[in-house]
Structures are given as structure tokens and as C-alpha cells.
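Anyone up for a design puzzle?
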């Protein structure tokens, strides 16, 4: 996705970049009703959309779809941007573009969330966008809850409910070498480290046994066979099975 050059018929390698002074002049023309200035602003900020959609490169979505949705967020940002505020356009536009893409992903999410919880989440996101615009920074959950006049727990629950699930194989860090994935950061509480080490030691001890001794131990302790059953299955006496079993266990104990 990141290396794709042409998106929605647009050659992203040739996208223009507007300087801050050019942006200010175009916004003034937009306020005067010039449609061409609005189109120039949109074209001049498509690289901003491109940089945002790269954050969603592991979602399995078509890059063309994300780009189009991101452009909707960009247009909304251009139409609602207040040039009198001491805020850079990119600071205002990026959360708007991200919000639009997240709404698109939520609406297409197979995991269903109740309407009331979804409405609360949408209001929380809108509140976050407005507070970000007013303060120029990301608001805290407490600030969003106060703005909405609801408990913090409701805000947290609503926002968590609409989060997109991630894969255990999504990379969380990569610095030129092997990536660190989500699964590398998780621990299985059902199996302790001591149990894992013990199982590893047992497997190594089993590998040191002869084929017949290993066969007897596997049948006896992993398959639940009796010594008589094993004797019948491999064609030796029960006494021989008993001697081989004791010898194998002694070897394993010494190793473990």
C-alpha cells in the first residue's frame, strides 16, 4: 500500500506541496467564494491524506477507498477551518481525516455495537475534534467527559467498543531488523513460565531415550496405557515393560 504510486487515478509522486503563505492566501480566496482556490487547497493537501492513510496500512482495506474517505475528511477540514485561530491547518486537518477514516472502518466493521453505545462514541469523537481545535492538543478523557456531561467510564466504554480488532501478527515495532509483533507482547496466563520450562525439559529428556524406551513412556504416561496393554501391543512380557519403564524414568530424572 505504502509503495503504491497511483491512487484513485492520482499520481501521488507528483502531488504538489503548498507553503504556509500560499495556504493563507488560498483560504482568503475561498472565503471570497472562489471555487478554484478551494480546489487548489484540496490538491495541495492530498499528501496530507496520503500520510494519514499509511497509518491504516495493516487493516486489509483497499487503499483507494481509504484515500477517498480521507479526502472527504480533508474537504470538511477545509470548509470548517477558521483562519483567525492561531492553529496550523495540518494540526486541525489530521484529526478530521483520521476521524473520517475511523468512522468508515467502524461502519464497515463486522462486529456489531449497540446503537446507543455507538452514538455515545460518535459524540465523544466529535467532542474530541472540537476540543482539539480549540486547544490545539489532544484532550484527555476527563475533559471529553466534562464537555459531554457524562461519567468518564461511559466515554471509555463507548470508545473501546468501536475500536477495530487487530491481528496478533500486526507489527508494533520495527527498526531495520526483525519486527516485534503484537503476539510477542502477550503472555498466556494459562501456562506459567515454570510449566513451559518443565515441558521443554521433559521433551529434551524423552529425546535422549532409545526408541523402545521412548515408545513405552509415551504409551504409558501420555496415552494412559497399562503395562499389560503395552506388553501385548509391542510383543514383550509385562516384566520387561516394567524394567524398561523404570530404566527410562531414571534416565529422565537424571537429565531433568
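Challenge accepted. My sequence:
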Amino acid at each position: 500500500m505504502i509503495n503504491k504510486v497511483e491512487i484513485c487515478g492520482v499520481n501521488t509522486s507528483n502531488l504538489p506541496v503548498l507553503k504556509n503563505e500560499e495556504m493563507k492566501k488560498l483560504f482568503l480566496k475561498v472565503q471570497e467564494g472562489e471555487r478554484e482556490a478551494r480546489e487548489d487547497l484540496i490538491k495541495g493537501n492530498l499528501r496530507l491524506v496520503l500520510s494519514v492513510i499509511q497509518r491504516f496500512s495493516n487493516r486489509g482495506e483497499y487503499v483507494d477507498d481509504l484515500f477517498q474517505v480521507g479526502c472527504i475528511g480533508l474537504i470538511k477540514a477545509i470548509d470548517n477551518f477558521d483562519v483567525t485561530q492561531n492553529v496550523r491547518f495540518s494540526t486541525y486537518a489530521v484529526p478530521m481525516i483520521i476521524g473520517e477514516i475511523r468512522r468508515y472502518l467502524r461502519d464497515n466493521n463486522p462486529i456489531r455495537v449497540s446503537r446507543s453505545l455507538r452514538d455515545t462514541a460518535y459524540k465523544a469523537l466529535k467532542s474530541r475534534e472540537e476540543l482539539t481545535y480549540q486547544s490545539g492538543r489532544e484532550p484527555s478523557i476527563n475533559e471529553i467527559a466534562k464537555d459531554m456531561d457524562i461519567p468518564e467510564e461511559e466515554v471509555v466504554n463507548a470508545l473501546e467498543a468501536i475500536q477495530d480488532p487487530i491481528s496478533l501478527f500486526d507489527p508494533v515495532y520495527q527498526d531495520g531488523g526483525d519486527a516485534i509483533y503484537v503476539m510477542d507482547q502477550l503472555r498466556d496466563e494459562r501456562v506459567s513460565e515454570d510449566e513451559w520450562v518443565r515441558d521443554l525439559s521433559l521433551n529434551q529428556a524423552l529425546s535422549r531415550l532409545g526408541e523402545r524406551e521412548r515408545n513405552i513412556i509415551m504409551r504409558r504416561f501420555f496415552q494412559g496405557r497399562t503395562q499389560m496393554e503395552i506388553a501385548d501391543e509391542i510383543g514383550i512380557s509385562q516384566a520387561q515393560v516394567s524394567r524398561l519403564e523404570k530404566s527410562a524414568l531414571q534416565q529422565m530424572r537424571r537429565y531433568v
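A detail worth pointing out: The longest helix spans residues 115-135.
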